[in-house]
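Dear V.,

Thank you for sending over the compound details. I've combined the ligand you provided, flavin mononucleotide, with the protein sequence from our construct and run the structure prediction for the complex. I'm sharing the raw inputs here so there's no ambiguity about protonation or stereochemistry in the SMILES, which I know was a concern on your side last time.
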Amino acid sequence: MRKNFEDTLVTPLPVLMIGTYDEEENANVMNIAWGGQCGPKHIALNIGITPEGKKTLKNIKVKNEFTVSYATKDTVEISDYFGLFSGNVVDKIEESGVSVKKAENVDAPIIEEYPLTAECKALEIVENEIGEIHIIGEVINITADESILDDEGNVSVDKLQPIIYDSIGKTYRVVGEVVGTAFEDGLKVRK
Ligand SMILES: Cc1cc2nc3c(=O)[nH]c(=O)nc-3n(C[C@H](O)[C@H](O)[C@H](O)COP(=O)(O)O)c2cc1C
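Below is the predicted structure of the protein with flavin mononucleotide bound, written out as structure tokens.
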């Protein structure tokens, strides 16, 4: 027996932190779980509807650029905070106490507490049939703190400890153990 769910997509989601500047160069960060990589160099974001509108969307429309950082086990509280309050009503940078510097390649902030950040240019901002906004960003550069690099200088998922969002349990979970090798394990099935 299988059960159908008409309006809930049950998936583990990435927890993305979107960094933007407004016209006065004030930094803001927003938590987005409905998003992710949608091509070799592209990231998609889904901005939902609120009466006053999201500060992040306004900022992206002004600057056309943003950063995407991956929330980690060490940043659970601030990452959730960035999804609970709007930059329209509170200065989230000041209240959270995070450290901000300008990205080298885009006009958007890097939040130092997040060790892995993609610098993105908005290619498309499209409204869907229910008024939500889909943004496609092109990744111009990825910047990683050396604390998450392995001995070969590559980003180590084990060191990064990214978290995912479980939209059913409303919990964050750390990405776990290695259970297979991509493009290889499937070969064992072939007769
Ligand atoms: C776990 C989690 C995931 C979220 N995912 C999204 C999302 O994908 N899209 C969205 O529009 N809002 C999402 N939100 C809500 C926004 O982060 C929230 O509305 C935030 O206040 C917007 O900030 P801003 O107005 O400063 O841009 C999420 C919040 C949480 C806690």
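A first observation: The mean pLDDT is 96.

Warm regards,
I. M.
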